[in-house]
């Protein structure tokens, strides 16, 4: 499914396909809901603008006669929102163990992050950080954006904790970085 450069005035609720869904440079006037969905080869919203919220919620599709809930449990999925803009991100940590997803947010901008029906705490922030993919090269921007969003929401302590977590993850990535640079240097000497 490819819908590049498309404009949608309303919200999008995405469920299931066996391939890949791509919405590069899309402009969506409402929310994007990716709960209870599965895309075998990923869901891509690169450089898109979402006027509403990105909803990462695990909920049943009450309108459907299909049992999507069982189909999506314990399945890994990659969602790409690189270089996208949205108003806010709404997460659901209550069903986190059933929703194995990695979200690429490098370059993504959002104003705030929320939790459905309750106040966001640091455990929720840690869950959100756990959604970041473990890339070969450490990407600090998703941590920095989360920290800024929390600061703008008046959650200074959680903002500071996210900044500290960014430094911890950067430090953990250094051995990989050093090893990859050694390999590059060795390969260039051999040539």
Compact description:
This protein is of the alpha/beta class and 191 residues long.
Account of the 3D structure:
Helices cover 32% and strands 24% of the residues. The protein is of the alpha/beta class. It has helices at residues 68-72, 122-130, 141-152, 156-190, and strands at 7-8, 12-13, 16-17, 21-22, 27-28, 32-33, 38-39, 43-44, 49-56, 77-80, 85-91, 101-104, 109-115. Helix 3 packs antiparallel against helix 4 (156-190). The protein is built from four helices and 13 strands. Strands 1, 2, 5, 6, 9, 11 and 13 form a seven-stranded parallel β-sheet that branches. Residues 60-74 have low confidence and may be disordered.
Features:
single chain; 191 residues; alpha/beta; seven-stranded parallel beta sheet; 13 strands; 32% helix
The biggest sheet amounts to: 7 strands, parallel
- Note the overall shape: globular
Instruction: Kindly name the structural category.
Output: alpha/beta
What's the total number of strands?
13
Give the low-confidence spans.
Answer: 60-74
Overall pLDDT, averaged?
77
Helix content class: 25-40%
Distance between the termini: 42 Å
What is the number of helices?
4
Radius of gyration: 18 Å
Can you write the helix and strand succession as a string? EEEEEEEEEHEEEEHHH
Beta-strand percentage range? 15-25%
Quaternary structure state of the chains depicted: single chain
